[in-house]
Amino acid sequence: MHECLLCKKxxxxxxxxxxxxxxxxxYKLLNCDLPKKVKNRESYLYKCIMKQTNMKNLNADQKxxxxxxxxxxxxxxxxxxxxxxxxxxxxxxxxxRIGNTSGFSMLVTATKIKLKEAYSLYKREQKFNLNLNKxxxxxxxxxxxxxxxxxxxxxxxxxxxxxxxxxxSSRAMQYAFWQxxxxxxxxxxxxxxxxxxxxxxxxxxxxxxxTDGLIIDEIERDxxxxxxxxxxxxxYGNKHDEFTNDDKIDQSIVFKxxxxxxxxxxxxxxxxxxxxxxxxxLTIYLxxxxxxxxxxxxxxxxxxxxxxxxxxxxxxxxxLAHISVEYGVIKEYNINIKFEINDxxxx
Length: 347
Known about the structure:
Helix content: 40-55%
Radius of gyration: 29 Å
Largest sheet: 5 strands, mixed
Order of helices and strands: HHHHHHHHEHHEHEEHE
Strand content: 5-15%
Number of helices: 12
């Protein structure tokens, strides 16, 4: 079987090194003028690359090896996502000694990265950039979900990341993906969710203590929180001037506000109360672990009964985040929240 050097597809009717489509892609990559005569394209390509690498007097096999390693370097050099500095340095060394090499397998990089792998990395990054731009400009939630399911699944598919280069590339793309999600979240007024996600993307993420700011304001305004506080004060403050809730049933809370609900999706609550002049001074403690521990049912996890597509979108984001935790892109951390409510009265 005679394969194209670039894409490895079988070329049954030709003895050339490249298929007709691939050699056009190569000329485009190198920004070289394309000869009008098809039969001259490969020989001219060899001359161009030999000139660019200062190579002379190569035999037929060495010319092919040079093209292989040079194109591998060029594809890697155009990649934005992933760290290829070490392998690129080794490719440069291999290119410089091809004239003294009697076998392709003698090159250091021959088994480390194939030309097709570099080409595949390049193509998947082109696809990623295209879909990322669509994602940035998407305003409709249904379209947003379609883009997510159709345009980014491969960067979250661990089974298809066959080597370290693909893994590194996927990590970098996931990071870029979450940065766009954060931008979209800010536009949609999901500031709390966006800020907590941004924190999880740091190289080193530590636990956080929150005592003021937007998240406190939103918690105090949340209807489910207000209902929870009222229930706790009635239950524990009856016939007492001080209390601390200690019932496990009372030590969990969900929020009605969607931003809070997505940001703090399983918080524990502790309330200390002290009565003065028939009013309560309350100290509120909330604890949550910022994590994505398991895949969620697409419809059931988020409780948006009026819009299944929104629930599907939210659960999809959660499940992608779960994979990013496995990749080490998203880091887990503890969220501790403490604030006071003074002069509280049960209405």
